[in-house]
Amino acid sequence: MAPMSWGRRRVLLLNATYEPLTALPLRRAVVLVMCGKADVVHGDPAGLTLHAATVSLPVPSVIRLSSYVRVPYRAQVPLTRAGLMHRDRYRCAYCGGRADTIDHVIPRSRGGPHSWQNCVACCAKCNHRKADRLLTELGWHLRIVPTAPHGPHWRLLVHSGEADPLWKPYLGVAA
Predict the structure, then answer these.
(1) Which fold is adopted by the domain 81-138?
(2) Which residues contact residue 127 at a Cβ distance below 8 angstroms, ignoring those fewer than 6 apart?
């Protein structure tokens, strides 16, 4: 592992019930383990170890809190570009090609909301062709039905690009 990546490395934090909570910086995860507030569930796949004067610790990839923490989740998952792309699997909702933009099914200029149910992943070509028109005007249809995602694993999508393959069993189908 390159020295520059140590500062940006993330560790999956699980509740005592193995429910995913968040992705922590490596430094914070090591502090939780050293203070006895968390246990290492999975170490680094490469087997890396942190060494101090009196202790050695495997570099964690997944840690679990020793005691249960009640987390009041918000009812709705916030709409983000990363979350929307992940929901639509980086595929255009109109042609099925590689998506690189976001499109409002009912354009905002025509009163369409900025919501999970009205936004889809879209390729630039389809986005430009659709412009501010309705699907009925073009004779187009959606390949997917846009819905709001649910579940705690959606809160971890900010770090989905940095996700370790060891996280998949704890994130469910979203990984």
Answers:
(1) DNA Binding (I), subunit A (1.10.30)
(2) 101, 103
